[in-house]
Amino acid sequence: MSDTFRLIAANLLSGLSMLLNTISITMGTKRKMILLQTFQNICASLGQALLHGYAGAVQDGVAAVRNLFVLKGLDKKPVKVFFVALAFVLGMALNNNGWLGYLLVAVATVYAAAVVCDQANEKTLKLVMLFTSVVWGSYDFVLQNYVKALGNAVSFGMAAVYLLRHPQGKWWGKETPPV
Q1: Rounded CA gap, 144 and 158, in Å?
Q2: What's the pLDDT at 178?
Q3: CB-based burial of residue 104 (10 Å sphere; 0-12 exposed, 13-18 middle, 19+ buried)?
Q4: What is the Cα Rg of the chain in Å?
Q5: Is the per-residue pLDDT at 54 higher than 90?
Q6: I want to staple 53 with a disulfide (CB 3.0 to 4.6 A). Which of 7, 143, 144, 158 is the partner?
Q7: CA 47, CA 17: separation in Å to the nearest integer?
Q8: What is 71-112 written as a DSSP string?
Q9: DSSP string of 130-171?
Q10: pLDDT in tens, 113-167
């Protein structure tokens, strides 16, 4: 497969991934966010793998499987810890992008912990997403995954706008149903 084809295919997959990610930010519940992010993770993982970004591909791949467990209610504490640890260990072991890859694995681990945490609500997830989008965007730019880097910039902006426009509500605690 030529480098040009890989670059185009990865950026197309990443475009779909970022569209799903952007839509997930607009969701009003944690469940809806995680459902869309599961499909986003699959597309992103394939795009990362095509560009030889193995630390990122592992994070997205494990996140997709973990999210399925969360959505099915099969996310007891040992299962949650297993997926967070699995993504961390595999990401560190397969990292081929130096310190940026290690930083990516660290922020992906923080986000994974927030997703599986029973006390993380939609506002908490958007705050964590704000920070992770900066690292993911930098990582993707280095990999020449320009669509995903741009998508992460948009995600950062959308999460920031949401948090600024919705200052009320708890930063931590179970999700409150919409009124």
Answers
A1: 23
A2: 53
A3: buried
A4: 15
A5: yes
A6: 143
A7: 9
A8: HTT---HHHHHHHHHHHHHHHHHH--SHHHHHHHHHHHHHHH
A9: HHHHHHHHHHHHHTT-HHHHHHHHHHHHHHHHHHHH---S-S
A10: 887 776 667 778 888 888 899 999 999 999 999 998 998 898 899 888 888 887 6
